[in-house]
């Protein structure tokens, strides 16, 4: 009588175990993305820069984006910046679009250097760039990334 009870139980256990092993992962995989960009603009207490970027993700997704940066702080100048950005891991390229809070420092006479740390919810973005112009400052503001 005991053998009859354990045989169906062993069969059910084996079937459940096999299905658990062969099931695909339910969680979405994360991917890393980078961006090359070009921004140009001016600043005098208020800073406004606009430009374009190209995002590439490790999972093969790519996008052309529009960039718009507006901030306020101790700043003066005019410059053009080319650089790169690195995003924290995302599930999908579409998570990257939107507004990012930004803290920035920039300086240059003829050759400009720019660095920004940005965040939008769980996603972070670090930008570094070089360019030309005359500028100096520290600002706080926002960068908007939109599809082109």
Mean pLDDT: 84
Spatial shape: elongated
Helix content: 10-25%
Strand content: over 45%
Tell me about the largest β-sheet. 4 strands, antiparallel
So how many helices? Answer: 1
SSE succession: HEEEE
CATH class: Mainly Beta
Give start-end ranges of low-pLDDT stretches.
8-27
CATH topology: Lipocalin
Overview in brief:
With 148 residues, the protein is mainly beta.
What does the model show?
- By secondary structure, the chain is mostly beta strands.
- It has one helix spanning 2-22; strands at 33-57, 62-87, 98-120, 123-147.
- It starts with a helix and ends with a strand.
- The chain contains one helix and four strands.
- The protein has a single domain, classed as Rhodococcus equi virulence-associated protein (Lipocalin).
- It has a four-stranded antiparallel beta sheet, with no helix packed on it.
């Amino acid at each position: 009588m005991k053998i009859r009870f354990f045989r169906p139980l062993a069969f059910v256990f084996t079937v459940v175990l096999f299905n658990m092993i062969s099931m695909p992962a339910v969680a979405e995989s994360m991917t890393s993305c980078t961006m090359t960009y070009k921004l140009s603009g001016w600043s005098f207490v208020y800073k406004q820069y606009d430009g374009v970027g190209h995002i590439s993700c490790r999972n093969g997704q790519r996008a052309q984006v529009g960039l718009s940066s507006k901030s306020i702080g101790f700043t003066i100048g005019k410059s053009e910046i080319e650089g790169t950005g690195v995003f924290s891991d995302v599930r999908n390229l579409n998570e990257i679009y939107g507004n990012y809070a930004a803290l920035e420092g920039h300086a240059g006479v003829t050759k400009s250097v720019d660095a920004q740390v940005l965040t939008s919810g769980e996603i972070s973005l670090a930008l570094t760039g070089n360019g030309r112009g005359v500028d100096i400052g520290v600002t706080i503001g926002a960068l908007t990334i939109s599809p082109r």
